[in-house]
Amino acid sequence: MAKDAIGYALTALNRLASSELLDRLGMRHTAERLAYRLTKGGFQVLTTSARAFKSTRKADRPERLSAPGTTIDLFDLNITEEQQMIRDSVRAFAGEVLREQAEQADHDQGTAEQVLSQARELGLNFFAVPEALGGAANESTTVTSMLVAEDLGWGDMGQAVAILAPMGVANALTRWGTASQQDKYLGSFAEEQAPLATIAVTEPRPLFDPMLLDTHATRDGDDWVISGEKSLVPLAAEAELFLVAAATDEGPAVFIVEGGSKGLTVGEDPAMGIRASAQRPLRLDEVRVPEQNRLGDEDFDYRAFVDLGTLAWCALAIGTAQAVLDYVIPYCNERTAFGEPISHRQAVAFMIADMAIELDAMRMLTYRAACRAEQGKPFRREAHLARTLVKDKAMKIGTDGVQLLGGHGFTKEYPVERWYRDLRAVGVAFGGLHL
């Protein structure tokens, strides 16, 4: 009842905020700020209410989460009112906080603790944890996570990766973790001070294939011993928990490795883009973990684990590419050459039109894959198609954005050069995130 009331109230407020009457009265900024604050407040009320019903017993492994209507093979682009509320709150946070801090975070090669704290206040981590373990998730949240990633990517891709990395670990533990793994690790993600956590899949070699890993895990009694090197690991130096992909005699597997484990070290190798995610190489020198720290049991699907991470990167790229498009359109309309806006030039207009077309294609393929994943249907093909298109077109949109700004696009005075560097990561990154 309370949830519906909040939803109706916020829907009415958001409609008021979009009214032209506010512009005539000069109240646009005040109304938008009120909508953001109340949306954020209402979102926190929902998550707080869910936590009040936290189970007092040790939770059994939750049933596999699935969305309503999974028996119908439909591709529905509509989102629920609750998802729209989440998007409104996240987009406001992305615009007011991430955009403002983006240049400094890129320079510092890390996301400020204040920003991470503000992100936690949104309560997004609660939607990665089932209600039985203190969270607010009562169905599969693949599509919701994708929408959140897209909106955060629109704000700043680097900081978005730092914010989403712990959520990715929580999502993986929710989907595949055994009862003992969830009891030990997952509940902490529903606390006010959720742990910093990350996923390590990518390795530093050309033409990396996540199905062919050089990092190896071998059995030694009741333990696994892991050795190898990972690259581009978000929050590597700060993380308290890692999900590390490694090859075993039975095939690829994922292991839960606690920060501070003997033989676990972090290197220094600043990346070209998404620098705010504090990506660093992670070295494992005979790191020993117990048998029960191998993620999941017989139902663990490593291919799906990789594909869901792929979709997260696609969603981030879509958000960042949208930021590029949103920036170059007014720039080209306002920038004049030879007495008229450069957008009047056919070559410029066609380039912007191509960017919009490519962006819509990226979004449709990614949405389709995420919808199938949420419905529990096979989505490997759809995820592969999405990544193939996104890694090509996202980088092209970044390149075209720099080209449209000319010399300005090559300077740090304008954000397009940072977006270009961030979008280059989509072609090489695996892991680090998980829908």
TrEMBL record:
<dbReference type="InterPro" id="IPR013786">
    <property type="entry name" value="AcylCoA_DH/ox_N"/>
</dbReference>
<feature type="domain" description="Acyl-CoA dehydrogenase/oxidase C-terminal">
    <location>
        <begin position="311"/>
        <end position="430"/>
    </location>
</feature>
<keyword id="KW-0285">Flavoprotein</keyword>
<dbReference type="Pfam" id="PF02770">
    <property type="entry name" value="Acyl-CoA_dh_M"/>
</dbReference>
<dbReference type="Pfam" id="PF02771">
    <property type="entry name" value="Acyl-CoA_dh_N"/>
</dbReference>
<protein>
    <submittedName>
        <fullName>Acyl-CoA dehydrogenase</fullName>
    </submittedName>
</protein>
<keyword id="KW-0560">Oxidoreductase</keyword>
<dbReference type="InterPro" id="IPR006091">
    <property type="entry name" value="Acyl-CoA_Oxase/DH_mid-dom"/>
</dbReference>
<dbReference type="Pfam" id="PF00441">
    <property type="entry name" value="Acyl-CoA_dh_1"/>
</dbReference>
<dbReference type="InterPro" id="IPR006089">
    <property type="entry name" value="Acyl-CoA_DH_CS"/>
</dbReference>
<dbReference type="InterPro" id="IPR009100">
    <property type="entry name" value="AcylCoA_DH/oxidase_NM_dom_sf"/>
</dbReference>
<dbReference type="InterPro" id="IPR037069">
    <property type="entry name" value="AcylCoA_DH/ox_N_sf"/>
</dbReference>
<comment type="similarity">
    <text>Belongs to the acyl-CoA dehydrogenase family.</text>
</comment>
<dbReference type="InterPro" id="IPR036250">
    <property type="entry name" value="AcylCo_DH-like_C"/>
</dbReference>
<keyword id="KW-0274">FAD</keyword>
<dbReference type="InterPro" id="IPR009075">
    <property type="entry name" value="AcylCo_DH/oxidase_C"/>
</dbReference>
<feature type="domain" description="Acyl-CoA oxidase/dehydrogenase middle">
    <location>
        <begin position="199"/>
        <end position="287"/>
    </location>
</feature>
<feature type="domain" description="Acyl-CoA dehydrogenase/oxidase N-terminal">
    <location>
        <begin position="80"/>
        <end position="191"/>
    </location>
</feature>
<dbReference type="InterPro" id="IPR046373">
    <property type="entry name" value="Acyl-CoA_Oxase/DH_mid-dom_sf"/>
</dbReference>
